[in-house]
């Protein structure tokens, strides 16, 4: 990837993090999230490896569909499948 492509990815991830933080703040201010709910939410994101793998596959397919519609070659089509445990908690 070029530095500009890396910057685009970084900015997309930043916008996603911003959105999540805003939603957490809204839910907290309305009393929907309390105590350590936000920390539990962050923790649970990595617990269901099968679900995370399915979300990854769906996102990848959407990304490739958009790229194809723009005649962009990503090279992602050639990536090997990740094992499901890749999307679970790290073994520490």
Description:
The protein is mainly α and 92 residues long. The protein folds into 2 domains: 1-47; 50-84, no CATH class. Helix content is 61%, strand content 0%. It is built from 3 helices and no strands. It has helices at 3-29, 37-44, 49-69. The radius of gyration is 17 Å and the shape is extended.
Write the layout of secondary structure elements.
Layout: H1 3-29, H2 37-44, H3 49-69
Round the mean pLDDT to the nearest integer and report it. Answer: 86
- Summed up, the helix count is 3
**Euclidean distance between termini CA atoms:** 30 Å
**Structure classification:** mainly alpha
How many extended strands? 0
Q: Unreliable runs, pLDDT <50, ≥5 residues?
A: none
Which word captures the global form? extended
- Report the radius of gyration as a whole number of Å: 17 Å
Estimate the strand proportion: under 5%
Largest sheet: none
| H-E string | HHH
- Number of structural units classed as domains: 2
Helix content: 55-70%
């Amino acid at each position: 990837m070029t530095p500009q492509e890396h910057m685009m990815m970084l900015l997309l991830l930043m916008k996603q993090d911003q959105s999540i933080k805003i939603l957490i703040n809204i839910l907290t201010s309305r009393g929907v999230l309390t105590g350590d709910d936000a920390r539990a939410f962050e923790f649970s994101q990595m617990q269901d490896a099968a679900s995370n793998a399915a979300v990854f596959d769906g996102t990848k397919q959407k990304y490739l569909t958009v790229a194809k519609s723009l005649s962009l070659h990503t090279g992602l089509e050639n990536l090997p499948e990740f094992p499901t445990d890749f999307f679970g908690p790290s073994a520490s």
